[in-house]
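Holo prediction — cytidine-5'-monophosphate.
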Amino acid sequence: ATAPVITIDGPGGSGKGTIAQKVAQFLNWHLLDSGALYRLVALAASNHGVSLDNEQSLQILAENMDVQFLVDDPEQPIRVILEGDVVTRDIRSEDVGRDASKVAALPSVRAGLLQRQHDFREAPGLVADGRDMGTVVFPDAELKIFLTASVDERAQRRFKQLQEKGMSANLADLQAAIQSRDEQDMNRAVAPLVPADDAFVIDSTDMNIDEVFTELMNHARQKG
Ligand code: C5P
C-alpha cells in the first residue's frame, strides 16, 4: 500500500511552504518542498558552470545531484545540503528563484526530478508543496489544496520574510518579480501552475497562518 499524500500547490509567497511544514509537523508526516529541488538544480548548474540552455546537462544534474534534507528541529527550516555544502539560505535568493523558474520550464528537468519526488512518499504519509504536486507528481493524492493570495499580499509577506532574515529587499521589485514568476509558471507548456480539478482552493489574502491551517485540517477531516 502506498502512503497517503496531502498536496499543497500555489504561487510563490502564498504561504504554502509554511503551511506544509505546519501540517507535516502536526501529523508527523514527511515533508517535500519540491520548489527547493528546482532551486537546487539552478544552484548546482551555477556551481558547475552549466548554462541554463543546456537541457541535457541540467537533466543529468537533476537526476544525479547529491542532495540531503535534514530535519534537526521541526520548528526551524529544513537544512538543505548540496554536495556537502549547507545551502539552506543560498537557495532562497531572488537570483536562484528566477533561475529555478527557468529550469523548471524544461521538460527533461521535470522528468529528471520525478523519481526523487516519488521517493518522499513513505509511511506514515507525505505533505508535498509546489506547483504541480496535485496535477502531475501525486495525481492520486488523498487531499489536494491550492493556496493562493493577491500579488500585493504575497510581496508584503516576502518583504517581511527577507527583512527578518536580515536580507535586503525592495517592495516594488518584489511585486514585479512575483508577477513575472507567476506568468512564467502559469504559462509554461509543461506542468503549468493550475489547481487540480479536485483541489480545494484557499485564498489566504485575508487569512493568517492559523486560519489557513484550520481550514486545511477541516478538509482533511472531511476526507477521513
Ligand atoms: O516554490 P519556490 O519559489 O521555491 O519554487 C521555485 C520555482 O520552482 C518556481 O518559480 C517554479 O518555477 C518551480 N517549481 C515548479 N514546480 C514545483 C515547485 C517549484 O515548477 N513543484
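READOUT: The chain has one domain: 5-223.
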